[in-house]
Specification:
about 120 residues; single chain; globular; alpha+beta
Length: about 120
């Protein structure tokens, strides 16, 4: 019985997709000010049409904000601010990335990088 239970646990953990592992790693390394472009074609029909008409791989962007934990030992909270008419919204980065998953469970997102690094004065701490 114990062997069957252990086998079930192994199968359960083996089902964690590579995309989920990569997403968790990305979230743990996120920094305030990063801009993420995603495809929400499977999540939002209007984004599907926008991406199809423009030939774009991405139809939505968000800006990462890491809120520092106030108590020692608590994990920082990572959010994305993004515009969804008629107003801006604040989602967890995980939810934002999950909204870009395709039918195969792959996250369709890119981290956009600036050509020129921000100066110390321009960075938000």
């Amino acid at each position: 019985m114990k062997a069957i239970f252990m086998l079930c646990l192994i199968v359960l953990f083996a089902k964690l997709s590579k995309a989920q592992v990569e997403m968790d790693k990305f979230i743990s390394q996120a920094e305030t000010g990063q801009v993420i472009a995603i495809s929400q074609a499977n999540y939002d029909g209007s984004t599907f049409f926008f991406e199809a008409i423009t030939g774009s791989r991405f139809g939505h962007i968000g800006v990462v904000v890491v809120e520092q934990a106030k108590k020692h030992g608590m994990a920082d909270k990572v959010f994305v601010y993004h515009g969804t008419p008629p107003y801006a919204q604040k989602w967890s980065l995980k939810h934002f990335l999950e909204s870009s998953m395709d039918d195969k469970g792959q996250v369709k997102a890119n981290l956009l990088e600036m050509r020129k690094s921000l100066s110390k004065e321009q960075k938000i701490n």
